[in-house]
Write a structure and sequence with these properties.
Strand order of the largest sheet: 1-2
Number of helices: 11
Structural class: mainly alpha
Shape: flat
CATH class of one domain: Mainly Alpha
Order of helices and strands: HHHHHHHHEEHHH
Helix content: 55-70%
CATH architecture of one domain: Orthogonal Bundle
Strand content: under 5%
Length: 277
């Protein structure tokens, strides 16, 4: 009797309507509210970050020559002197102008990492605004060659004529394809692939390290524009001869032929000999 009574009570409890039951949309509503809150917080944080970034960019772009002086004295004066006069560790910068500063600092060669036969190109340590500020200060203290007009850097010159000028004046060190080459006493002419046009122009005008100076009497601005155009064309177009093998000429080509050509002939000879046996 007790068992039947318990079963009857359990059946009645199962049939009794439930109270306080959640709606089927409650979970979806909670998820939607959570997504809205998360999206609002993310949007607010993104807007704050963008505003801070724009403020930093505007502040960086408004650097003055006085800021350039402070940057120079903090990073360059140890070797070049507080007033560009030079020291035992570095040459004077009197008369080098803004163009030389833009080249040396803009390619990462300066500040110099270590003393050696030649200052190598490395990652740039300053922003464009900081480089411009230092260049403007050097130009103000001791004027020299300034930055060229944009028309000489547009790559719209005569590329064919520029290639001829390059072969005549530059290929003996930089290789006819601009791949660079070795010089004496551990020095070298760097490759020119991917170099910015303003840095190529600056190198021709200022003659950094072992490079001669090509004044306007040697190469006019239009000549320099044509050379830059030819190098830009070479960067944008694949090698006409197929795989360039580093564009090192007969050295890499001869090595390739010796290893794969002679090696292939030896392998065929061994195969024929083994086949005949």
């Amino acid at each position: 009797m007790a068992i039947q009574t318990n079963r009857r009570r359990a059946t009645q409890a199962a049939k009794a309507p439930r109270t306080g039951r959640r709606s089927r949309w409650a979970a979806a509503a909670l998820i939607g509210i959570s997504l809205l809150i998360t999206g609002g917080v993310y949007a607010g944080a993104t807007a704050a970050t963008a505003a801070a970034g724009s403020n930093n960019e505007s502040a960086a772009s408004s650097l003055t020559t006085e800021d350039g002086k402070k940057l120079f004295q903090a990073n360059c004066a140890t070797c070049h002197g507080m007033d560009l006069q030079g020291t035992a560790n570095g040459p004077t910068l009197i008369g080098v102008g803004a163009l030389a500063v833009d080249f040396q600092v803009g390619t990462g060669r300066m500040p110099l990492q270590s003393q050696g036969p030649q200052a190598p190109s490395k990652p740039v340590q300053f922003t464009d605004a900081q480089i411009t500020a230092m260049a403007d200060w050097v130009q103000e203290v001791s004027p020299g060659p300034g930055l060229p007009d944009a028309k000489y850097l547009d790559g719209e010159g005569d590329a064919a004529r520029g290639a001829e000028l390059f072969r005549t004046n530059c290929a003996m060190c930089h290789n006819v394809a601009g791949a660079g080459g070795a010089l004496t006493e551990g020095k070298y002419a760097p490759g020119l692939s991917g170099v910015l046009p303003q840095h190529i122009y600056a190198a021709m005008v200022t003659g950094p390290q072992n490079m001669p100076v090509f004044s306007d009497m040697n190469l006019t601005p239009e000549d320099k524009r044509d050379i830059i155009s030819s190098l830009m064309w070479a960067d944008e177009n694949a090698s006409a001869g197929g795989y360039s093998l580093g564009s090192l000429g007969p050295v890499s080509e001869g090595l390739f032929i010796w290893i794969f050509g002679i090696g292939g002939l030896v392998a065929i000879t061994v195969w024929i000999t083994a086949k005949s046996n």
